[in-house]
């Protein structure tokens, strides 16, 4: 079972447009509404793979009620924490070439009591969880050290933590030694305070995060592939993508693939790559099912030597 924690979930509305023109009245060719937020996306991908998942998240207003219903339709157990503010609604505009324009709402302002209730919900629902995946930005009202406190409490209870966040929240949580952190290329560069021009630069940055506390780093490098750096060294993987339809949630799908494949080693990395490649070829923030995956298309450092990959540019 994978338990996910999404402190700032959303309803994600996606519109597919023939073109995006400022100041014009635009007519969408297709639209969809999905339960959103990084941890929610991980739960959706886990559920699509046939595994049990529980989503801990704050829910408020009619938007929160709709989000809970949508989670149920996806086979996800929602452990909702009632909050006074309304769950946010995000809007994505997708053009035919895959270009994405996304507007993320700020979300509710959580009170100290609501913040503590979220931590308590994680504690009460995490029994038997193989992993706890803590994902996304913190909403207003949660201090940067909130994830650090969650990691501290979870480790005391013997749980394994995967963390996908950035900025001050990531920096604070590293001190509590999360079992794996999952940045993208931009977040990895931000974390070390310098640009990453090559895969080799990304490896060095991941090693730096390990030196600051992360036990493993799973980094999404966009079209260039994915990187896993852990106590056994560095591993690199990629898969071809015929056409990108939407990259919303691709990193979340990758994390789900990694965790459901055990959360360690080259095999889990290959699963992460397969899930990410499948996700970008689906509409909106749709998560891949097993039928969407093409594991045979994934190449890892067993097929492409790492020393060759290290010199390749990061998108």
Summarize the structure in words.
This protein is of the alpha/beta class and 315 residues long. 34% of the residues lie in helices and 22% in strands. The chain has 10 helices and 14 strands. Strands 5-4-1-8-9-10 form a 6-stranded parallel β-sheet, with helices on both faces. α5 (167-174) links the parallel β9 (161-164) and β10. α1 (38-48) packs across α8 (250-260). Pfam families: PfkB. Residues 23-290 form the Carbohydrate kinase PfkB domain. It comes from Streptomyces desertarenae. This is 1-phosphofructokinase. It is an enzyme of class 2 (transferase).
Q: In short, what is this structure?
A:
It comes from Streptomyces desertarenae. This protein has 315 residues and is α/β, with parallel strands linked by helices.
What's the β-strand tally?
A: 14
The averaged pLDDT comes out at 92
Instruction: Report the biggest beta sheet as strand number plus sense, adding barrel if it closes.
Output: 6 strands, parallel
Distance linking N and C termini: 34 Å
Q: Helical stretch count?
A: 10
| Radius of gyration over C-alpha positions, nearest whole angstrom | 18 Å
Report the portion of residues in β strands.
15-25%
Helix and strand succession?
A: EEEHEHEEEHEHEHEHHEEEHHEH
Low-confidence stretches: none
Specify the helix fraction band: 25-40%
Strand order across the largest sheet: 5-4-1-8-9-10
User: What form results from the Cα inertia axes?
Assistant: globular
Helix/strand class: alpha/beta
Pfam families: PfkB
EC number: 2.7.1.56
Keywords: ATP-binding, Kinase, Nucleotide-binding, Transferase
Domain Carbohydrate kinase PfkB: 23-290
């Amino acid at each position: 079972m994978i338990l996910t924690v999404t402190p700032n979930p959303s309803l994600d509305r996606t519109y597919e447009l023939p073109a995006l023109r400022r100041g014009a009245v635009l007519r969408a060719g297709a639209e969809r509404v999905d339960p959103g937020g990084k941890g929610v996306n991980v739960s959706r991908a886990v559920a699509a793979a046939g595994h049990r998942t529980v989503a801990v998240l704050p829910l408020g207003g009619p938007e929160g009620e709709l989000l809970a219903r949508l989670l149920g339709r996806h086979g996800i157990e929602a452990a909702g924490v009632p909050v006074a503010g309304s769950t946010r609604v995000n809007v994505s505009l997708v053009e035919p070439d895959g270009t994405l324009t996304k507007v993320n709402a700020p979300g509710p302002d959580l009170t100290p009591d609501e913040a503590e209730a979220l931590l308590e919900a994680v504690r009460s629902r995490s029994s038997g969880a193989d992993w706890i995946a803590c994902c996304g930005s913190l909403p207003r009202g949660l201090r940067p050290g909130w994830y650090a406190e969650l990691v501290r409490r979870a480790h005391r209870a013997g749980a394994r933590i995967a963390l996908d966040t950035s900025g001050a929240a990531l920096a604070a949580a590293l001190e509590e030694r999360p079992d794996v952190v999952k940045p993208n290329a931009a977040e990895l560069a931000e974390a070390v305070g310098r640009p990453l021009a090559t895969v080799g630069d990304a490896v060095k940055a991941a090693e730096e995060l390990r030196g600051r506390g992360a036990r493993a780093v799973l980094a999404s490098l966009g079209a260039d592939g994915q990187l896993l750096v852990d106590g056994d060294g560095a591993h690199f993987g990629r898969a071809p993508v015929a056409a990108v339809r939407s990259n919303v949630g691709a990193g979340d799908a990758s994390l789900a693939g990694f965790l459901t494949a055990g959360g360690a080693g080259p095999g889990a990395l290959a699963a992460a790559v397969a899930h990410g490649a499948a996700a970008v070829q689906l509409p909106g923030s749709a998560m891949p099912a097993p039928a969407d995956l093409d594991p045979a298309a994934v190449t890892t450092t067993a097929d492409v030597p790492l020393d060759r990959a290290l010199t390749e540019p990061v998108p």
